[in-house]
Amino acid sequence: MTRKYYGSETEKSIENFAISDRRLPSVFVRAMAEVKQACAETNIRLGYLDKRLGVAIVQACEAIAAGKYDDQIVVDVYQGGAGTSTNMNFNEVIAGLANEILGEEAVHALQHVNLHQSTNDVYPTALKIAILYSLKSLEKELQTMQEVLQQKELEFRDVVKLGRTQLQDAVPMTLGMEFAAWAEATARDRWRIFKSRERIKQLNLGGTAIGTGLTAPRDYIFRVTEQLRKLTGLSIARAENLVDATQNLDSIVEVSGMLKALGVNLFKISQDIRLLSSGPQGGLGEIRLPKLQKGSSIMPGKVNPVMPEMMGQIGLKVMNNDSLISQVAALGNLELNQFLPLLTLTILESLELLIRSIPLFCQKCLTGIKADSEVCLGQVQKSEALATVLINRFGYDKVEAMIKEAGERNISLEDVILEQQLLTVKELKELLSPAQMYKLGF
Q: Is 224 exposed, middle or buried (0-12, 13-18, 19+ CB in 10 A)?
């Protein structure tokens, strides 16, 4: 049986919050352990913490940050106290591990591990560190997605197809242009994610209960965030106004808004891909997706666009999580937000879902997309939208008459053009060439 390193306060929290069995993600566990380590190292350096005890605390924190004791962080994420139960869980586990290292019961969870700290400064600091780590990972995945879409842009640059507005035929374009637009949207998302890290680098560590720094010495307050910066390698700093940084969560709301914008684009892109691959015989069928698994228990040969559908659901979840995060931040009262654990769960969930889903979407869908060039061009040739290309050559009325004739005789507009010798086959081909599509104007 695994030893329990936590103590009585954690046991009380387990009993009081027996709700969901949902635990904090490993990225938060790592961040909180690093915050505790930075506090201990600062207290050792300044002489506030006995070095022998402090070194054992640091070693315990390092082991937790390495992921060796995630099973000891056991308090349900749905808890009262703005994260106090989680902080006590960490304090007790760190003390238990440190005492095991020392071989004696010398380290106290509050007197030593929690020295010069409050839940109200270490918990939100750990959350911001976890978000910063996650944003770096997310930016990397978005870079890969942008590159994949740009590769497809080049691959499909010569595939002429119909553009569509209101799901009706519009003017011709190329499939490469379609992918280029998605690549641009992804590039904007990548930039937003990069810039959003600036919004949360200001920490309230050292502010203790409400940001006044009560019970913490001044030299500790001025040095602890710098120690955390060295430990994590992140661009972080102590907030100028620690009371503000303890009260208000708008900076995290702003980050969530960036994630929502990404969710919107991922939903749009994934559903566009789903639509373009529809059919394949009875739909648009302009692209073919990788065949991953059976799509029906009753229809042989049916294959569903499961990866775009997965990505669409992630987009919806992130969009709706943003609404919850906004409500949580708005409902905080005076010096502290009592619903901070719910915000922690929700924003880290959004980040984890995005980090895990985007590479799967790239690997199992985007990279394997193939174009059906014949279907794409055939739909252009059959469509009356081709007429738009001819207006500058023949005038609106003439083109309208050509469309009417094609409809009455049930032939293509291209056939009418060639019959009336208005254009040669070569001229018509040039008019619909990819090079023509990439020109701005005429």
A: buried
Residues 6+ apart with CB under 8 A from 226: 238
Structure tokens at 253: 């709301």
In this model, does residue 392 exceed pLDDT 90? no
How is the chain split into domains, by residue range? 8-115, 121-210+235-373, 384-436
Average pLDDT rounded to a whole number, residues 18-30 = 95
Q: Which residues pair with 174 in a beta bridge?
A: 160
Closest CA to 113 of 75, 66, 46, 58: 58
Rounded CA-CA distance 197/202 in Å is: 10
Q: Which fold has domain 121-210+235-373?
A: Fumarase C; Chain A, domain 2 (1.20.200)
Task: Give the pairing of strands 160-165 and 168-174.
Answer: antiparallel
Q: What architecture (CATH level 2) is domain 8-115?
A: Orthogonal Bundle (1.10)
DSSP bridge pairs for 287:
371
Q: How confident is the model at residue 434 (pLDDT cuts 50, 70, 90)?
A: low
Q: Does 8-115 match 121-210+235-373 in CATH topology? A: no
Q: Is 296 a catalytic residue?
A: yes
- The SS3 assignment for 269 reads helix
Taking only Cα atoms into account, the Rg of the chain, rounded to an integer number of angstroms, comes to 30
Predicted confidence band at 395 (pLDDT cuts at 50, 70, 90)?
confident
Ordered DSSP codes for 363-381: HHTGGG-EE-HHHHHHHHH
- Here the tokens at position 192 are 């937003």
Q: CA–CA separation, 185 vs 208, rounded Å?
A: 41
Tell me which of 296, 297, 383, 412 is the catalytic residue.
296
Cis peptide upstream of residue 280 (ω within 30 degrees of 0)? yes
Whether pTM > 0.90 for this model: the answer is yes
